[in-house]
Structure formats: C-alpha cells, structure tokens
Specification:
Blueprint: H1 3-6, E1 26-31, H2 36-42, E2 52-57, H3 58-71, H4 75-92
Parallel strand pairs: 1-2
Helix pairs in contact: 3-4
Length: 93
C-alpha cells in the first residue's frame, strides 16, 4: 500500500528488477520545515552505493499512517504503524 505515497519497492535506478533478498532496501526520509531540494542534497540517491531514498513530507506521512491505523487490519501491523508515527512525531515535532 505504501507504494502509493513512496513509489514501488524497486530501486529507482533499476525499476524493472525486484530488490534481492538481503540487499539494502529503500529508505524513506520524512521531512518537515525544510525544502525537498535540501533533503535530496542531504540524502542523495546513489546507485553505486546502493542508497535509494524516497522523500515524504511530514503531513503526507502522518495522513498515510493515520489512515492505515484507522483501518486496524491486523493488531501487530497497527502497533508497528503507531510506533512509526510516534517515532516520526518525536523527531520532527
């Protein structure tokens, strides 16, 4: 479901191939009170180093997490979403 906000879980430099098991995955950078361009400079996508970042504005991240938490499909998933939301809030509020 998260692909709707951060894109597919394939690396940006090789969108047709899935990420191999055990390989470095996609990292999501949630940002607030800073411009996207500055975030992209701090966390650049680098195929040589296998660093793939997706950038998500704070409000979009909170909207996504709150919507999924309200769905409450599986308790363990809901708990993980709540921990993620709380962690983001603690760092960016």
């Amino acid at each position: 479901m998260a692909y709707r906000v951060i894109g597919p879980k394939n690396h940006q430099w090789d969108p047709q191939a899935p990420i191999p098991f055990g390989a470095e995955g996609v990292r999501v950078v949630v940002y607030r009170n800073i411009g996207l361009e500055e975030v992209q400079q701090q966390f650049p996508v680098d195929p040589e180093r296998h660093q793939d970042y997706r950038y998500l504005a704070y409000a979009d991240a909170m909207d996504y997490l709150e919507a999924r938490i309200r769905q409450n499909l599986l308790k363990r998933i809901t708990l993980r979403l709540e921990r993620t939301r709380d962690s983001i809030r603690n760092h960016l509020d």
